[in-house]
Amino acid sequence: MSAPQIPDNASVRAAALRAAIEQHNHAYYVLDAPTINDAEYDCLFRELQELETQYPALYTSDSPTGRVGAPPLSKFLPYTHRQPMRSLNNAFNTAEVHAFDERVRDRLEAAGIISSGARVGYAVEPKFDGLAVNLCYERGVFVAGATRGDGTIGETVTANLRTIRSVPLRLLLNNAPALLEVRGEVLMRKQEFLHLNAAQHAAGKKLFANPRNAAAGSLRQLDSRVSAKRPLFFCAYGVGEGGNALACDTHASQLAWLRQAGFAIASQSTVVNGEVELLEAYQKIASMRDELPCEIDGVVYKVNDLAAQRALGYVSRAPRFAIAHKFPAEEARTRVLDIEVQVGRTGAITPVARLQPVFVGGVTVSSATLHNEGELRRKDVRIGDKVRVRRAGDVIPEVCAVLLDERPAGAPPFVMPVHCPECGSPVEKGPEEAVARCSGAMICPAQLRETLLHFASRRAMDIEGLGERLVGQLVEHGMALSPADLYRLHMSQLAGLERMGETSAKKVLTAITASKHRELARFVYALGIRDVGEATARDLARRYGSIEALRLADCESLQKTPDVGPVVAQSVYRFFHEPHTSGALDALLAVGVSPTGAPASDGAALPLVGKQLVLTGTLPHLTRNDAKALIESAGGKTTGSVSTKTDYVVVGADAGSKLETARQLGLTIIDEAGLYELLHTDAPPASGG
DNA sequence: GGGCCTCGAGATCA
DNA sequence: CTCGAGGCCC
After folding, report:
1. pTM, whole model, 2 decimals?
2. A151 touches strand C (CB under 7 A)
3. Strand, helix or coil at A400?
4. CA-wise closest residue to A370 among A400, A334, A325, A406
């Protein structure tokens, strides 16, 4: 079956329609100045759709017809940002802004970039409350987009981003670099959020809590046709890879370039000089906050001069040249219904206020940690008190203060329990310690539950299916008194538990058995040694190579591990010499847990594990066999035909029907370069290798 | 911490 | 249908 011949006039017409439609999209969705009425727009759109249906080969990835969504994905694939997406440090008051400006001036003076006493030029823009994404343009065409993820690797949500009308599918400037990353925020306007919720309500569906969550939820749909119906908006605020090629020397000129290229840019963006003007700009934006179409949670300041930015550089994950000046957290008043104490994995006793649910900062808060006894005393929170609550750093709910004049008469001060509420063991607190701890160790059901959960968690032994609910039941029924007991569980024991049918039981037992051979670093982390987190566990595993060697180490030796000082060394030494903990370790080894000496995988070792790939066409540098070998050495499989189980289709020149099938199934299609990207290796030099 | 999406499987009812 | 679990976002 051969494709119909495409007449020249059809491809010319299709290109013209695409350009026209995108021009109108830009006018309508970015400039907010429609150039055509809906009927006329629909007419153009339908004509293009018909052309593309008649001649499928005419379809291009930058066609606006793709904006209606594509067939659902089975999952989002990881996406490695070419330049990491960093986060910003925060300033919560003017003193912190002052300190920021001072640091910037000192460094720039020292670098000879500004003279003493000179004011620094800053680009100022509102900080929109949405989701950061990265858009990748190749030769001016939108080819991929991803969420921020951990800053290095995010999730590919290209199909969903394509449905956002304010994301240009093709840049309007033709001087775009071969590869350009555009960073910005996916948002939902307040008004459109209200409309969406009204529609959700009318359809009897769940309401979204706030515009940010609605935007995030919309972007995480596997079916981009759902995303297409959500009123999302994209606002660009910067560039990543390829930024240097724009020949801009300031941040403001980069934004201007982006605007010319077809992106929406925050219209409140300005450039100011020095700290005083920064704060004026902040006040101005703050005063407009309620009238702005989108929610903002602060103002971002960036050193405007790019050379100065480079000179300032980065500290750990955040740039030194920028800061987010956050608005004060919204506060609300509510009642303390109860004060509970929670027992953590290490026995730490944490008082938690149960609150009359209250909507604050976009979410419903019903509990807030009171941290520890000292904090609780200082604030003197009592049951029945009316309190002011807020979300600290816009995340964790916090009781800021008690409204004393509304305290119910006779409300007694809260006293920390002297016995653990879960196991009755004495609560102990060292003179220097801030936190009180239950001394019950593994006798305490709470500590045991948390220990088991930590042991099974994804970053530790990664036992899938062993969640809160199951662990709770295991502890309650005395089926697990230590992690080692997990490996002695039987079908017959699990069978009686709630929501535990044969299938689930089998799965979890298989997962438990499979966890016997985890990398040493995971095992060391899973043990839950005080002061040993993931990073330290990795360092210890690397230095000692086996659990036997590690447990024999003395404090002096331990301290030769990177970032391990006397305190951590002491904790590790203690763990291996205390009869309790040492015994639990022996028990684990006895039931057959045998950590492998290999270093913890950082995810880069075998990037294609469990992936199915199909090769089609002729790749530029690799023979079919070479490509197959590469894929297999990375843990992936290759198959001959395309199906819904296929993860990637690698296309080369003269690809045939497989490519067409892959398109219809909405599969991820990559080329040879894309394959190398998946493999996390560089492409070989052009002349073989 | 709270909200969101997705999946699989158990619970429930026709 | 609901629930638990896992994962991701700020």
Report:
1. 0.82
2. no
3. strand
4. A400
